[in-house]
From TrEMBL:
Cross-referenced Pfam families: Hemerythrin (PF01814)
Species per Swiss-Prot/TrEMBL record: Thauera phenylacetica B4P
One annotated Gene Ontology cellular component of this protein: plasma membrane
CDD domains in alphabetical order: Hr-like (cd12108)
Official protein name in the record: Hemerythrin HHE cation binding domain-containing protein
């Protein structure tokens, strides 16, 4: 049985993974000397990651999916508690990443390694987090939630518009700016 809300979460994970992969590729191209640092572009990519997953995606998981699963499954509690703690730490992780980018901007090439390390840590955490949700929470939700639970959760997720576009296309405009500025293969810009 397919659940619309789990499909939406999976699609949002894929979109986040694409943005993270793009940022990682951009930084690798800078390190290899193929591109010059574009600090505004990298800051925009971090802003997008902050605005969508941290401010829209995670609260939606906490409020709807995790809350209902918490009511239905003691087995899921330790995983939910860990994931919710990670959600609460999201602002601090983004601040660390943003701070490393600012240090790179100030220090020039000497700051690249610090930014790369912060980005690597952030990406590894996000991959682990998404994998935990998809490989532990999704099966537990499918096992323990009722059709009525799913109807309510799906309705909430479907009512939340596309978080990657945001209210009145707010995030879509930021995404378009990133795609138009970033060089291939990340975006359409000329680098």
């Amino acid at each position: 049985m397919s659940n619309k809300s789990l499909d939406i979460i999976h699609d949002e994970h894929r979109a986040l993974a694409a943005m993270l992969s793009g940022l990682r590729g951009l930084v690798a191209s800078i390190e290899a000397g193929r591109l010059k640092p574009d600090f505004e572009l990298m800051a925009s990519m971090i802003e997008y990651i902050e605005m969508v997953p941290e401010k829209v995606h995670h609260p939606k998981e906490d409020t709807y999916l995790f809350a209902r699963l918490r009511e239905r499954s003691a087995e899921a509690l330790p995983v939910i508690e860990r994931l919710e703690a990670e959600h609460r730490e999201g602002d601090a992780r983004i601040a660390t990443l943003r701070g490393a980018l600012e240090a790179y901007r100030r220090e020039g090439e000497a700051g690249l390694a610090g930014f790369q390390a912060a980005l690597k840590t952030y990406i590894e955490h996000e991959w682990q987090h998404m994998n935990t949700e998809e490989h532990l929470i999704f099966p537990l939700a499918r096992k323990h939630l009722s059709a009525e639970d799913w109807a309510q959760i799906d309705a909430a997720f479907l009512a939340n518009d596309n978080p990657w576009q945001g209210p009145a296309g707010k995030y879509a405009a930021l995404f378009t700016r990133i795609v138009n500025t970033a060089p291939a293969p990340v975006g359409l810009g000329g680098g």
